[in-house]
Amino acid sequence: MVELKAVVKNEAGIHCRPTAVITQAAAEVSSVITVLAPAGSAVLGSALELMMLGLEQGTLVTLQADGSDEEAAAMQFQKLFETNFDFPDAAKVG
């Protein structure tokens, strides 16, 4: 098992769209990825579990990867949690 720390960088936290990106990436690795946060833990294959953590910008999380690609997977998810997703601002669209 590999553990890495990450700080949520996205201004709006881990809301629906970042959750979709993260859970899709979780489906593409062979390791089981678990995130440990102040509000609890979630397996990253479950969008609902991840959303229930209410991860806001600045939240420190621990990522645990367990499986054949655990080292690469842990680093991949560390980068995802530290991404400032640049989805268009709803006020600027249209």
State the CATH architecture: 2-Layer Sandwich
Judged by helices, strands and strand pairing, the structural class is alpha+beta
Query: What is the CATH class?
Result: Alpha Beta
The tally of beta strands, per DSSP, is 4
Shape: globular
Give a nutshell description of this structure:
This protein is an alpha+beta fold and 94 residues long. It contains three helices and four strands.
What are its keywords?
Histidine-containing Protein, Chain: A, 94 residues, alpha+beta, globular
Structure description:
By secondary structure, the chain is α+β, with helices and mostly antiparallel strands. It has a single domain, classed as Histidine-containing Protein, Chain: A. It has helices at residues 16-27, 47-52, 70-81; strands at residues 2-7, 32-37, 40-43, 60-66. Strands 1-4-2-3 form a 4-stranded antiparallel sheet. Strand 2 and strand 3 (40-43) form a beta hairpin. The longest helix is centred in the first third of the chain and has 12 residues, at 16-27. The relative contact order is 0.31.
Question: Helices and strands in order, then pairings?
Answer:
Blueprint: E1 2-7, H1 16-27, E2 32-37, E3 40-43, H2 47-52, E4 60-66, H3 70-81
Antiparallel strand pairs: 1-4, 2-3, 2-4
